[in-house]
Amino acid sequence: MSASVLYDAPGPRGKALNWVYSAIALAVLAWVAWIVYSKFDATGQWEADKWTPFLKSETWENFLIPGLKGTLSAFAVGAVLALAFGFVFAVGRLSQSRFISIPSAVVVEFFRSIPMLLLMMFIYFMQQPLGLETNVFWAVVLGLMLYNGSVLAEVIRAGVGALPKGQAEAGVAIGLSPGQVMRTILLPQAVRSMLPAIIAQLVVLLKDTALGFILAYSELLNQIPKIDGNFDNLIPAAIVVALIYIALNTILGLVANFVEARTRRVGHTAAPVGRAGAVDPVAAEAELVQKGNATGGTMGSGL
Amino acid sequence: MKFQKIAALVGALALAGSLAACGSDDSGSDAGGDKIKIGIKFDQPGLGFKESDGSYSGFDVDMAEYIAKGLGYDEDQIQWVEAVSANRETFLKDGTVDMILATYSITDERKAEVDFAGPYYVAGQDLLVAADNTDITGPESLDGKKLCSVTGSTSAQKVKDEYSKGVQLQEFDTYSKCVGAIENGQLDAMTTDNIILAGFAQQDPGKFKIVGKPFSEENYGVGLPKGSKDRDKINDLIEKSFEDGAWEKAFNDNLGDSGYELPEPPTVDRY
Amino acid sequence: MDLISESGSAILTSFGLTLRLAVFSGIFSLLLGVVLATFRVSPVPVLRWIGAAVVYTFRNTPLTLVMFFTLFGLSYQLGFSFDKDLLYRNNFWLAVLALSVYTSTFVCEVLRAGINTVPLGQAEAARAIGLTFTQNLRLVVLPQALRSVINPLASVLIAMTKNTTVAVTIGVTTATMVNEASGQMKSLMERNSDQILLIFIIFAVGFMILTLPIGFIAGWAAKRFAVIR
């Protein structure tokens, strides 16, 4: 149901009223903007020397680029490990052997149910008792892996679960082992159909790298106090960093849209058998939620 | 078949995990006999600090280099290991480090587990305030004031329990956030050992001052494994550093601009 | 088990604080989420744009940054405080503000998805009997939409409860200076390096106790209030 169904197409009076409401809304918006502007003005946020540092290459070289590297390297390693973790535990949970499926389920449900920040803190503090040098990068990355990997395991499992039964049965009928059925028939289709949901989870993972800030991992957020220390411009620095995050997420979102459009098209040509290639990721997600596994899905802990 | 595959995947993952864990672990205990492993702080400016270029600086670092030199080790034979407060005894016991200079207070409790040379410095818990602050004169003048410390430190709680019941505590994950908030006038003071405070004041000379009424006494010693045969030698070296000016130089090089004056050298306690 | 006897009551107190953070943030994020969703489906274009902009901004900014900004930007730089004298009150409400605004954008999107599940005929029938947009939304569409999104909303609230841990960024405490759960866990781990696993398990179980009931209640409510079509 699109929004327009909620109200009649406005007549002359309705149009006029909408103009009035628009004007009121704009006035309120302008009022809020003015409050923000004058607060900024009163505290000197508009002073040029608070903003010009972002036009200088040194600021980027010394702070923002290293911060971006920290964020993106945690994201890249975390994403690869989370995907690996997700596959292993999705397959484990789908296993016909209880000795594998039950422990896999326990692991996945455990890591989905605790805050990722606590996971990262735990890994951070556990390194020294284990005789390792305290390394914050791996605390962040392994935290990202355990939580997002568990969510991805459920996404992949839902994708496999949403495939028509005939797919697996046909595989068994031609003499494939359960492992071969999983690897050559079910997983490829499940991944293809769940790709948008998988990428949505990667967006969550990217945002969650910011939790590294709390453990003093040198990522983007951690540059805000450093830039502020140099130029006394905390608010401009925070705004610039927020814009970088929004830009990164927008790029990932565009990738997701592109992939979604592509998988739809592929779904019609490459999988002519039944609906095999055309599992609706939203439906599979919804199914996840309906099962009561209401721990976050694509919302993630970064929500 | 299916199980083998999963086992292989799990194995691969575990391998990835362990590689991950070892990735940057250069503190391993595989150093040859010609290296000395010294535990320092990595995150305390002016005392023990890992610079962005990978080098180390600070009063503890300079003192450690002086002592290592006296024991016959060159600078490149020193292997620096990060010693976090909670793990200093463990590190000495299991041989992760050969000695520790990391704002390590000599206490009877710790003496039961490890040996100490020194003290090489007497610190005390103190307060850091903005340079123009006049109404905070000591820990008992903090009622209603906003005092900053880091999560997990007991020093702020001590002020609240023993001196100013009405003090308000703000905890951050790092001292540097405290420093920033005091600079902006949002918080009134922060507390920890005076020499640590001096390290932060040093970063922004002129903006802060240390109140200068220490309300505890912390004897910083060189932590050594129990029964260490180097203890007497290190005590000699510490006394020598007091006399030949190396101690004063280590302080002035790292904390000289902090506005915090070097106290008299302590008497080495050869217990 | 020294840990329990020494810190047991402090751990309980910190979970009490976490619970308060979650309850207040839950209430405000639901209210704000309904407002945002109304904006996004309203006939007034300007309101739709505002709703979309707010949702897009906060969904794509990490909560840690939002939380950090409330204290260091809003309070320290711009001078906006809930309580000028009492630190713990100011920080508590700043954390509630950050969690509420951030979570409300997710509530908004869930509600919008819920509105999409309401059959066309419902809204059309409401319009046919002459209901205005607000009447239509309030009396016909939202009641049905809300019922169909109980489970996804519970997911959002569970995630929000776990997200209260991010409040450690600005140091949220009780009047007696006990930290919320994540700050408490951090300081316990710093002081008891030999019992890190035990401490972690205590806090992990604590969060399960806080979040499991939300899932159960939602599961029950979703069945109880299911819209029969």
UniProtKB/TrEMBL annotation, chain B:
<dbReference type="GO" id="GO:0005576">
    <property type="term" value="C:extracellular region"/>
</dbReference>
<protein>
    <submittedName>
        <fullName>Glutamate-binding protein</fullName>
    </submittedName>
</protein>
<comment type="similarity">
    <text>Belongs to the bacterial solute-binding protein 3 family.</text>
</comment>
<keyword id="KW-0813">Transport</keyword>
<dbReference type="InterPro" id="IPR051455">
    <property type="entry name" value="Bact_solute-bind_prot3"/>
</dbReference>
<dbReference type="GO" id="GO:0030288">
    <property type="term" value="C:outer membrane-bounded periplasmic space"/>
</dbReference>
<dbReference type="Pfam" id="PF00497">
    <property type="entry name" value="SBP_bac_3"/>
</dbReference>
<dbReference type="GO" id="GO:0016020">
    <property type="term" value="C:membrane"/>
</dbReference>
<feature type="domain" description="Solute-binding protein family 3/N-terminal">
    <location>
        <begin position="35"/>
        <end position="258"/>
    </location>
</feature>
<dbReference type="InterPro" id="IPR001638">
    <property type="entry name" value="Solute-binding_3/MltF_N"/>
</dbReference>
<feature type="signal peptide">
    <location>
        <begin position="1"/>
        <end position="23"/>
    </location>
</feature>
<keyword id="KW-0732">Signal</keyword>
<dbReference type="GO" id="GO:0015276">
    <property type="term" value="F:ligand-gated monoatomic ion channel activity"/>
</dbReference>
<dbReference type="InterPro" id="IPR001320">
    <property type="entry name" value="Iontro_rcpt_C"/>
</dbReference>
<dbReference type="GO" id="GO:0006865">
    <property type="term" value="P:amino acid transport"/>
</dbReference>
<feature type="domain" description="Ionotropic glutamate receptor C-terminal">
    <location>
        <begin position="35"/>
        <end position="249"/>
    </location>
</feature>
TrEMBL record, chain C:
<dbReference type="InterPro" id="IPR010065">
    <property type="entry name" value="AA_ABC_transptr_permease_3TM"/>
</dbReference>
<feature type="transmembrane region" description="Helical">
    <location>
        <begin position="21"/>
        <end position="41"/>
    </location>
</feature>
<keyword id="KW-0472">Membrane</keyword>
<dbReference type="Pfam" id="PF00528">
    <property type="entry name" value="BPD_transp_1"/>
</dbReference>
<keyword id="KW-1133">Transmembrane helix</keyword>
<keyword id="KW-0813">Transport</keyword>
<dbReference type="InterPro" id="IPR043429">
    <property type="entry name" value="ArtM/GltK/GlnP/TcyL/YhdX-like"/>
</dbReference>
<dbReference type="InterPro" id="IPR000515">
    <property type="entry name" value="MetI-like"/>
</dbReference>
<keyword id="KW-0029">Amino-acid transport</keyword>
<feature type="transmembrane region" description="Helical">
    <location>
        <begin position="92"/>
        <end position="115"/>
    </location>
</feature>
<comment type="similarity">
    <text>Belongs to the binding-protein-dependent transport system permease family. HisMQ subfamily.</text>
</comment>
<dbReference type="GO" id="GO:0006865">
    <property type="term" value="P:amino acid transport"/>
</dbReference>
<keyword id="KW-0812">Transmembrane</keyword>
<feature type="domain" description="ABC transmembrane type-1">
    <location>
        <begin position="15"/>
        <end position="218"/>
    </location>
</feature>
<dbReference type="GO" id="GO:0022857">
    <property type="term" value="F:transmembrane transporter activity"/>
</dbReference>
<dbReference type="InterPro" id="IPR035906">
    <property type="entry name" value="MetI-like_sf"/>
</dbReference>
<feature type="transmembrane region" description="Helical">
    <location>
        <begin position="61"/>
        <end position="80"/>
    </location>
</feature>
<feature type="transmembrane region" description="Helical">
    <location>
        <begin position="196"/>
        <end position="222"/>
    </location>
</feature>
<protein>
    <submittedName>
        <fullName>Glutamate ABC transporter permease</fullName>
    </submittedName>
</protein>
<keyword id="KW-1003">Cell membrane</keyword>
<dbReference type="GO" id="GO:0043190">
    <property type="term" value="C:ATP-binding cassette (ABC) transporter complex"/>
</dbReference>
